[in-house]
Design a protein that fits this description.
The chain has helices spanning 16-22, 32-49, 62-73, 87-98, 116-125, 147-154, 205-213, 223-230, 243-259, 261-281, 308-317, 345-361, 370-379, and strands at residues 5-6, 55-59, 79-84, 102-107, 129-135, 137-138, 143-144, 160-164, 183-187, 198-203, 297-301, 321-322, 324-325, 334-338. By secondary structure, the chain is of the alpha/beta class. The strands form four sheets. Strands 2-10-9-8-5-3-4 form a seven-stranded mixed β-sheet, with helices on both faces. Helix 4 (87-98) links the parallel strand 3 (79-84) and strand 4 (102-107). Helix 1 runs antiparallel to helix 9 (243-259), helix 5 (116-125) runs parallel beside helix 6 and helix 11 crosses helix 12. The radius of gyration is 21 Å and the shape is globular. The model has no long low-confidence stretch (mean pLDDT 97). Bound molecules: pyridoxal-5'-phosphate. Pyridoxal-5'-phosphate binds next to helix 3.
């Protein structure tokens, strides 16, 4: 078989049911049939976000929802605190800059996690902060932020809490209501395992109250319009949505809830723990500290004596397993193994067999099977 196994931190392979759902012909996006599908999909999104709030589907990738959150909730000239420990934390800063929002950053060394105390100190030091952005799973470094504990801090301040769960929702613990999250965003192509091209967003009452006061400076992503269209009968979106991708997202969410959200999250944590042990058994070093490691992507230092191409190139060309490289200054320094979406031990067994053979070929490990052997502790 020549198909490439995607072990990327998104996009991820879709369940055949999801692909099948997409092959159904399009329907009128303002009609009853679509309204029912859209409503069911947004309800499944809210169930996945674990919130009583309504959710909205945007035809755009995860970044569109990040932009929708900031641009609808913070006025031009107002101040936002951006927690930045990697590329996606940095993206919120770039979005703020484009929208004339003043960005104050809480800068972390890449590979480390923010502590709730740091957030509290930053809020205490500046009462003009109108919102805080956090990335739950910093995909560029393989670090998970303690969004629950940050939420415990945020509930004592007026500033809105905006959380990016693009690469964690469905794969790690996200409980929007319990974590006091005011606005939460995600994308379709990671743990949800639908094709790329959709994003989802949910606002609580505080977020809507802010949204009503903010002078909207965007057109396509105006959330008041999404709310008004969502409230119509039949429910709809303000502009033509990707009908086919919404069929796919609905099927992907059904797959998750048939497994059970808790079970899906547990499966991701199990894959992450197994991957970390397999990495260590192959004499490789994890990039972040294990205590703050992601449940959905494992970042690994490229060992001395090898290049990114030696490892990822061989994995792809010879063994047909695709891993991701480092981003920005980590390019050439780390590889990232995505274990998100519908993957389980079969995919990990192939990946770590291929990684072991690759490292053996490079003379970097004695026992090519040590990684796979380490998986046994987690799956047998
Ligand atoms: C944590 C995180 N946030 C945001 C994004 C941006 O999502 P998209 O590429 O779908 O716009 C990504 C994509 O990798 C991500 O991992």
């Amino acid at each position: 078989m020549n198909e490439i196994l995607l072990m990327l931190p998104g996009p991820t392979t879709a369940d055949p049911r999801v692909l099948q759902a997409m092959s159904k012909n399009v329907v009128n996006h303002r009609g009853d049939e679509f309204g029912k599908i859209y409503t069911e999909t947004t309800e499944l999104m809210s169930k996945t976000f674990q919130t009583q709030n309504d959710s909205y589907i945007l035809t755009g990738s995860g970044t569109s929802a990040m932009e929708a959150a900031l641009a609808n909730l913070v006025n031009r000239g107002d101040k936002v605190l951006n927690i930045v420990g990697g590329k996606f934390g940095g993206r919120f800063v770039e979005i703020a800059n484009v929208h004339g929002i003043e960005s104050k950053t809480l800068d972390l060394e890449w590979g480390t996690a923010v502590s709730p105390d740091q957030v509290q100190e930053a809020l205490d030091a500046d009462e003009d902060i109108k919102a805080v952005t956090a990335v739950h799973n910093e995909t560029s470094t393989g670090v998970a932020a303690p969004i629950d504990e940050i939420g415990e801090v945020m509930k004592n301040y007026d500033a809105l809490y905006i959380v990016d769960t693009v690469s964690s929702l469905g794969g790690d613990y996200v409980d929007v209501d319990k974590f006091h999250i005011d606005a939460c965003v995600t994308g379709s192509q990671k743990c949800l395992a639908a094709p790329p091209g959709l994003a989802a967003i949910t606002f609580n009452d505080d977020a809507w109250a802010a949204c009503e006061k903010v002078e909207a400076n965007n057109y396509y992503l105006n959330m008041l319009k999404y709310r008004a269209s969502g409230n119509k009968d039949p429910a709809q979106t303000p502009y033509t949505p990707s009908v086919s991708l919404i069929y796919a997202l609905k099927a992907a969410l059904e797959v998750i809830h048939e497994e059970g959200l808790e079970n899906s999250v547990a499966r991701h944590h199990q894959a992450a723990a197994a991957s970390r042990d397999a990495v260590k058994a192959l004499n490789l070093e994890l990039f972040p500290d294990e205590a703050v490691s992601s449940a959905t992507v494992t970042a690994v230092n490229i060992p001395e004596g090898a290049t990114d191409n030696d490892i990822r190139g061989t994995m792809l060309n010879k063994y047909k397993v695709q891993l991701a490289g480092g981003q920005d200054h980590l390019k050439g320094n780390i590889i990232r193994i995505g274990h998100m979406g519908v993957i389980n031990y079969q995919e990990l067994a192939i990946t770590f067999t291929a990684l072991g053979l690759t490292l053996k070929g490079l003379g970097l490990v004695e026992d090519a099977g040590a990684g796979v052997a380490a998986l046994a502790d987690h799956y047998i």
